[in-house]
TrEMBL record:
Domain of life, source organism: Bacteria
Keywords annotated in UniProt: Membrane, Transmembrane, Transmembrane helix
This protein's name: DUF192 domain-containing protein
Protein species of origin: Dyadobacter sp. 676
Residue spans crossing the bilayer: 12-30
Taxonomic lineage: Bacteria, Pseudomonadati, Bacteroidota, Cytophagia, Cytophagales
Length: 173
């Protein structure tokens, strides 16, 4: 009888030990799996426009409005030098209007500009002299206007093509 009781205790002890070992192993495996899974990344934030509406530019063909955009205005040397540099997003209906005191061959570049742009060169009479379409982001190559200009409008690449804006058309602001 004592032997039988001893045997039952031994079996119970082995079962209890087995349960603890299995439980410990399961816990260890589960915690290891959690660490090996890549952390879930939060959904990327939707880019928010980073601009201040300071005016509007209307594009005209033969005096008739084609389309209108909201613009920031760069009218001093510091604003013109910075332009749209360091921006990661530009809404389709937004651009930048550069205003120069005197007409000249004001060339532009894309240094520190990550957004491909259409650069619209405009003469003192507000007629479009030339358009540099789909400019290369970060390029330090000079992009000349091929004529005297007093105003420049920068918009997202493809804007001029989508809106049928061409040399000879005009702007008003």
């Amino acid at each position: 009888m004592k032997n039988n009781m001893k045997h039952r205790r031994s079996v119970f002890a082995y079962i209890l030990l087995g349960v603890f070992l299995l439980g410990g192993a399961a816990y260890f495996i589960a915690s290891f799996r959690d660490r090996s899974k890549p952390a879930e990344m939060p959904a990327p934030a939707v880019p928010r426009p980073v601009y201040n509406k300071e005016g509007e530019v209307t594009f005209l063909k033969k005096g008739r409005p084609l389309t209108k955009i909201e613009v920031e205005i760069a009218e001093n040397e510091a604003e013109r030098a910075k332009g749209l540099m360091f921006r990661s997003y530009l809404p389709d209906s937004v651009g930048m209007l550069f205003i120069f005191e005197q007409p000249d061959e004001h060339a532009f570049w894309m240094k520190n500009t990550s957004i491909p742009l259409d650069i619209i060169y405009v003469g003192p009479d507000k007629k479009i002299v030339s358009i540099a379409q789909n400019t290369q982001p970060y390029s330090e190559e000079s992009i000349p206007p091929y004529g005297l200009v007093q105003y420049v409008v920068e918009v997202n690449a493809g804007f001029t093509k989508r809106n049928n804006i061409q040399s000879g058309d005009a702007i008003s602001f």
